[in-house]
Structures are given as structure tokens and as C-alpha cells.
Amino acid sequence: MAILGGLIVAATGMLTHLEIYADQKWLTTVVIVLGLLIFSLAVAALMFSILEKPLAWGEKISRKSGQTPTQLLYLVLGLMLALTSALAAGKDGMKALAPSLSILTWLGGMLLMIAGSWDPQEAFPRPSRQTLLITANLFVIATLLRAVASTSVPPLLNGDEASAGLSAVRFIDGSANNIFGIGWFSFPSFYYAIQSLSIRLFGQTTFALRFTSALIGGLTVAAVYLIGKRLFGQKAGLLAAIFLAGSHFHNHFSRIGLNNIWDAFWFLLSLGLLVDGWRNKRRSSFIFAGLSLGLSQYFYVSSRFLVVLVLVWLAVVVVLDKKNIRGNRFSVLALALVFLAVVLPTLWFFAHDQNLHNFLAPFNRVEALGDWLKYEMDLREKPAWKIVAGLVFTSAKTFISIPTRVWYPADVPILRPTSAVLFLAGLILLLFQIKKPVSWMLFLWLGVFALAGGLSVPVSAAQRYVAVIPACALVIGFALSQIIDLLGRVWQDKEKIMVLAAAILLVGLGASDLYYYFNVYTPTTNLGGANTLVAQHLAEYLMDEEPLDVAFFGGNRMGYHSISTIPYLAPQIQGLDFHHTWGSPENPALKADTLVFVFLPDQEPNLDLVQLDFPEGNLMIEFDQNDNLLYWLYRTPNTK
Prior knowledge:
Layout: H1 2-17, H2 25-48, H3 52-65, H4 69-89, H5 99-117, H6 129-147, H7 159-173, H8 190-202, H9 206-232, H10 234-246, H11 248-253, H12 260-280, H13 283-296, H14 303-320, H15 325-351, H16 353-364, H17 371-380, H18 384-397, H19 417-431, H20 437-454, H21 469-488, H22 495-524, H23 530-542, E1 549-553, H24 565-569, E2 574-577, E3 595-599, H25 604-613, E4 618-623, E5 629-635
Parallel strand pairs: 1-2, 1-3
Antiparallel strand pairs: 3-5, 4-5
Helix pairs in contact: 1-2, 1-4, 2-4, 4-5, 4-15, 5-15, 6-9, 6-10, 7-8, 8-9, 9-10, 9-12, 9-21, 10-21, 10-22, 12-13, 13-15, 14-20, 18-20, 19-21, 21-22
């Protein structure tokens, strides 16, 4: 293995050496030299038996860590491949220096790190057929709830969704190939590469853009059952999954083509596996937690809090659960090594000076501690700590009493009244088990988002709370499970009836949430505002047209490309913004045989001028659901 591994590392280092920047070639030289050194030592060991002392030293490390000497070699090779991947990806946001090589070495580094960290003595837990059947059913039901009618619910394809879609399309047309860089709005490009797979399959449509969110939403519901079952037992896991399947909040973000919903999955997987690994001294759980933690860094920015949360939780359990420290030391190291192998390419990318601002950009856009806080202190004549404390308190109330805002401007909080009561009951019951690692995990998980929501503006912006909804589901599942166990002391032999009653209650709450979302919220929402509504209607008109030119008169209010809905849904159309009066030589030239002119409400004088020049055209007037004018559309006959 050492002979082959050394050659592979040297070869990938050499291939990368030919592609990367001149100032980084010394790093690939190091990788090549180390690969050849491993190859040479392995050959010498086989031919001349001259490495008895170093091998004995390796055996000693192996006995302490539980790894074989070969596994220790895997770790070294895996780290070198991860570094090679980072170098081959480069520092360009969307174009990798050697894209195929960067992906292959990344995957190889991960696999070697997992193989090197694995405990060969550990029996891997195998789920029963019943568990697999329940998991599969939950996944199918939850995914269908999120995927059916996703083109029309939400009714508008928001410009941010469409902008993400255009970043995904770049992976299809070849203008992007770096999954370790960044795309639209400084978000990691890995997500857009995943979206591009769906677009390849279903076409450049709203459904394709949102399908990946529905899929990961369904997987999160199934994972809540498995994680909840592992942490709290079968009842709690199943009840938590039933709640999450019907949650209006989780369903909404599972129907939007943005990366927020993925963080709910990564938080759940990383924290749930971490607690399971610590409690049961199961190294495989630590390894997969490290894998999940690393992958999470390629999605929404709330995942960066996850790294801090893991470190804080580990610090807490080291104090509260000292008896498990000895059995988990190497498992924590395994988590760190796997995490490093997964995240190294994106860390390397952001480490470059020109990219560091992109790492901070999502925080800088919304943070409340800078100029905003200073302005509020002057306006309200209050000290900073009082203002911040009020923000955090408001953020915490978003779970149970304050309506969410921005990306989900509903008139309800994350948890509607009955769910909120069950959630609060669960928190009280967890306080009775406060010394348990799982209790701290949930409290820290909830606390991080209450704090993060309060330190950003506007408070209660729904998109920043998506990753915490699985925690709410677990607390509710735990609450009902505990209540059933407590009542079982009084009403013996009634457990099955109580479990059924709890399941029916949650199905009812889910049905109520879904009714609210589909029948109350959706018909009245106008997510994105009037300009988004213009873009949606115009895109639906143009998406099935043959290639033509659109002259767009939006004034100072809106441009053809200012909302990406039209370019995404109608990529064959050439849209041109007309900022001057019709007939001005400063306007762009129209060349297509068929022309479409679009005029927003304040552009009627230009409509009159166009009609004078093209008197044979057809006029269409588009209104919104309240009969307010959206735009005039004037189409000329084909001039061929």
C-alpha cells in the first residue's frame, strides 16, 4: 500500500505542479518529495529490512491509538491528497486550475482519512428492517409534501433563487467548474454544482431549481427520526419526525431554491452523531460527524456557527462527563482529521487575501454590532448592552410568539401555539436532565441561533433560523415521549394508546400547519415585491417563445436583468434596457425580426412613441391579483 500510495501522491502532485500558480509550486514540490519518500522507504523496507526501529515506533503509536500501521499511512496520504486538491482548485471563484484533479484528490483524501481513522474492532450498528421501512416512508412522504406543486408554491420565483440558478447554469455551460470557490452573493459554489445536476435532469425550470431543497428537506425528516431514535428512543424519534414533516416553517424553506435548508440537515447530522459517538464511545459516529461538519461548510453561512458549537459542546462535556474522556480522545482526533480533509480546499480558497472578504461578506451584510448599533444607541439613548439584550430576547421569541420576517413574512412564529407549548414543555423536561450531554447539545443549538438572530438585522429574519428547526422537532418529540413515560406510571399498559394519541396530535398539528401554509399564507404572499411580480409574469410569457429581442423600459425602478427570474426562465431571450426616450441614439440597437416592448406604469409616453413607429403591433396589459397595473407589453409582427 505504501508503494502505491506514495506513487499516487507523487503523481497527483506532479500533475498539479504543472497547473498551479508559480508562487505555490513549492507546495506541490513538497507533496511530490513526500510521496517519493514514502515510496522509497516502503521499497527499502521490503528489500533490505532496514526500517525495524521506525516500524517498531509506528507499532507503538498504533497500539495506543487503536489504528494499524497501514491506517496511519492512510492518514498521511489522505492529508497530502487534500492539500493537492486545494492547490488544484486554485483561488478563482468559479474556475479551477485543474477541476477533475481537484475533485478526485478531494474524494481520495476523504476516503483515506476515513479509512485511516476507522476503528477496526468496532461493530458497525445495523438498523432493523422496521427502522429502514419507517425511514423510507418518512422520506417519501416528506419529500412529496415538499416537491409537489413546487413550481407554484411559493408562487413567485424570487430573484435570489433565480440568481442561484444562474450560478448553477454556469456549471452546465462550462463557465464554472470550481466546486470549492464561490458563486452568487459570496456563497460557496458547491451548492450551485449540486443544483446544476437537477437542472441538467429537469431543464432550466423552477421545479429543477427547487427540487434539491425538497430532496434534502425529505432527508432531514428521515434523519430526525434516526437521530432522535438514537438519542431519545423510538417514540421520541418517530414523533419528532412526524412534527417536522408537517412543519410550515420547514416546508417553506424546502420549497425555495436556496442553500439555507441544507444547514438544517448538516446541523442535525453533525450534532446528533457527535452526541451518539461520545455517549457510546462509537468512533464511526465521530468520523461521520466530522464528514458532515466538513461538508456543511460548503452551504449556507450559518454552518460556520456549527464549528463553534461543536467546540463549545466538547468543552462542556469534558467538564460534565469526565468518565468518557479517555475512551473518546482518539475519536475526537478522528473527527478533526476527517473534518480537515473535507474542508481544506475551501479553507485554502478563503485564506487568499482577495477571497477573505467573501468569507466575511455574508456576516458584514447583516451584523448588528457596527454602524447600525451606534445609530440605535444615539437614536434611543440606551447603552449597547441593553439594545443587544433586547435583540436577543426578540430573537428567542421568534421561536414561539413573534412572526418571522423577510424570506418567510408569515403572521406566525416558527412554532404555532400548540407546538410552542410542547416545545416549552420539552425545554422544562430537559432541565431535569441538564447534566446529560444531549441536553446541553439541544440547549446550545437553540441558544446559538437565538444569539445569532439577535446579533443580525433585521431580527426574526426567517432564513437565519432554518438550521434550528430540527432541534425544535427533537425537543417536541422528547417532550411527548417523556410525558407518555410519566403518564405510564399512572396508566399502566396504556403506552400504545398514548403513543397513538401523540402521533394523531402531531399529524393534526402538521395538517394545520400545512393548511396555514398552502391556504392562508401562499395565496396572499408577494415574496419579493412588485418588481418580482413583474419579472415572474414576464418570464412566464417569454419562456416558451423563440429567440427575440425585448426592449425594457423600467425607468429608475427596475432593469431587465436586475431580477434574475427572466434571464433564468427565458435564457433564449435577449433583453435590453432602454434608459432614454424611444428614438434616442443612446438607446441600444434592436436586431431581431420580432420585437417585444415592455413598459412599467410610469413609461406610458414611450409606449405612445413606439406605437407610432410600429402601428401594426399588439398591445397586452398585465395586472396583478388586485387589478393593479404591472406593465404594458407591445409586440410587433414578424418583419421577415
